[in-house]
Design a protein that fits this description.
Helix content: 40-55%
Cofactor: Zn(2+)
Number of helices: 15
Oligomer: single chain
GO molecular function, one term: zinc ion binding
Pfam family, one: S-methyl_trans
Keywords: Metal-binding, Methyltransferase, Transferase, Zinc
Strand content: 5-15%
Organism: Erythroxylum novogranatense
Bound molecules: S-methyl-methionine, 2-amino-4-mercapto-butyric acid, zinc ion
Largest sheet: 8 strands, parallel
Amino acid sequence: MGRAHMSSLMTDLLRHSGGVAVIDGGLATELERHGADLNDPLWSAKCLLTSPHLVRAVHLDYLEAGADIIITASYQATIQGFEAKGFSTEESEALLKKSVEIACDARVIYYERCKEGSLDGNNNGRVLKLRSILVAASVGSYGAYLADGSEYSGNYGDKITLQYLKDFHRRRVKILAESGADLIAFETIPNKIEAQAYAELIEDEGITIPAWFSFNSKDGINVVSGDSLIECVSIAESCKKVVAVGINCTPPRFIQGLILSMKKVTTKPILIYPNSGESYDAERKEWVQNSGVSDEDFVSYVDKWCEVGASLVGGCCRTTPNTIRAICRTLPHRSADQSC
Ligand SMILES: C[S+](C)CC[C@H](N)C(=O)O
Ligand SMILES: N[C@@H](CCS)C(=O)O
Ligand SMILES: [Zn+2]
């Protein structure tokens, strides 16, 4: 894929979707809501082994809720993590590819349903609209691999160098880039060193699909490690293969201020997919109940986010297909053709 084509992937999607594209909601927590047990070092990637059909069904639910981009179940899928479970390197690489295949299968099924749905005219509230859909291959941070909630602290210690992080992610990123995904979603990036590692890696390895960089924050000012958001976003800004930059898995109340900060240093499309605002107990691998916002409250922010500069909006952990459906309904250019 040439450079021009890389940047046109996102501009074309935004043009087709009327200026704002919709990202899916939390995949992992939706799998959990359907009964999956994620209390495992692989977290959601465990479902690639135990319940691929459920992963596909959840991708489909998000497409039928109106998402234009679905994110694969590879957030915590690493070759090192699979090998620790006894899989060979080849098997581990195949599991990474499988995460993308499942999402691509869901897209094919969705397009078939669109054709059938437009024939029988009864969509039961589902969005069945032939449109551009992108599959984003998730890459969670080194902290996610540690499976101790480190992606909410970003404190890796002095031993974890830039070179270490590049080597940790290298093979996984190459496999995902060649798996048929449309782009790579570097998500929940907790610190500057990991952003730098990704930026160098995609250049050094000649990665041929575009990427987005998405950071998380717990104070509405900096990224979770305390590193400057401005410096983190500047790394993304200087990387030509990065076609969007933004924030995910962060409470909705912080988002508006974070968009305004990012706008000072980026001209790239800004993406926003906050969590429900609930907090995560990393030791118990459980969410602290009743600490978040309702779908209505979440959606009440969306217009403002778009007004101040967000071009891609969705949800992260503990948001559901209902959240995504509500986001689509609130976007004026989409509501008219929701039930095609
Ligand atoms: C974004 S957090 C909720 C992801 C889960 C974490 N890496 C864990 O394994 O507990
Ligand atoms: N996209 C990820 C979560 C990132 S915090 C997933 O739901 O698996
Ligand atoms: Zn999340």
